[in-house]
């Protein structure tokens, strides 16, 4: 870890916080609003790589935990980690880590399809199972039924993954931060 | 000083040390999470009593619960049909209790005190690679970056409007990130130059609190 990495981690934690200010899309049937913050989680991994991406998301969650109202609607504090949907929150750092790990692997042959694959695998496939399992365990509703309920968020998350991929590619062209083995890009 | 959700006061709960409160919360929440049946009826009684001790009114209490309420009620409604009304009541009591107890800690403890408690709890683990000073520095930087990014995003959107583009949030995300990455880079250089970075083993003084001004 060097000062530069620390600064980038802080920047992306702050970026996820700023995304919480974007008005959430409220869909009447769903109890949980669709927010822009999971977009920031994918982007943190896709721009910073596995380790720094995961640490950025973790730092954001620490800031929420100490009582800063950084989640959409000014929510924050330890209370949000107690709710039935907290599993999605806990799986964010893991998701960012997987997005980043894949982005590092694909870095030298990167195009939109590879970036999208990284974002979908880490930002959706890794986050949903954990969130669903927590929800099912906490509420005693069967895993299948919670999975069906959570599927309502899939279209929004795919759109976010697509936008995150496009933005990450743009950043990669002008400010590449992931270093691949053997050849350092800086 | 950033207060977040904190509501200053002088009640016994306000005066408890942050670390003590965190420990008590962890123990209580674990118990509440695994409680079942009639025992759960005690949870709202204790919660209300604690809020009264901290001198918060019913409105403050309700405001802590409100964001999570639709979701909890939805699950409860589902359980009435899928399982039984007993389980539905259990779910409502359990989660409203957990959320309210945790919120009480955030209401009665300043973010500064909480982050200090967290960092000092971390200090013994330094030899296992948990760098408390680095985390404190990262927290300070992140809090400082929030208004900087907001402003940069606003600038980018204004420029895009001036060029006649449609004003969409996500179109501004890329340029905003690139702009602020440069700032973050310069900040890292400035920190290094002043001997406050991580590269300098003999840094004169690193912040021990995320909220204290650096001297």
TrEMBL record, chain A:
Which protein family is named in the record? Belongs to the BioY family.
Q: Name one GO cellular component term.
A: plasma membrane
Q: What kind of membrane protein is this, topologically?
A: Multi-pass membrane protein
InterPro entries xrefs = BioY
Give the keywords, sorted. Answer: Cell membrane, Membrane, Transmembrane, Transmembrane helix, Transport
Stated name of the protein: Biotin transporter
Q: Does Isomerase show up as a keyword for this record? A: no
* Protein location: Cell membrane
Automatic annotation (TrEMBL), chain B:
For this UniProt record, give its keywords in alphabetical order, as a comma-separated list.
Answer: Membrane, Transmembrane, Transmembrane helix
One Pfam family of this chain: CbiQ
Write out the transmembrane intervals.
22-53, 65-86, 92-114
Major place of residence: membrane
Q: Which GO terms describe its cellular component?
A: plasma membrane
| InterPro entries in UniProt | ABC/ECF_trnsptr_transmembrane
Q: Which residues form the signal peptide?
A: none
Q: Where in the cell is it found?
A: Membrane
Family membership, please give it.
Belongs to the CbiQ family.
This protein's name = Energy-coupling factor transporter transmembrane protein EcfT
Q: Where does this protein come from, organism-wise? A: Notoacmeibacter marinus
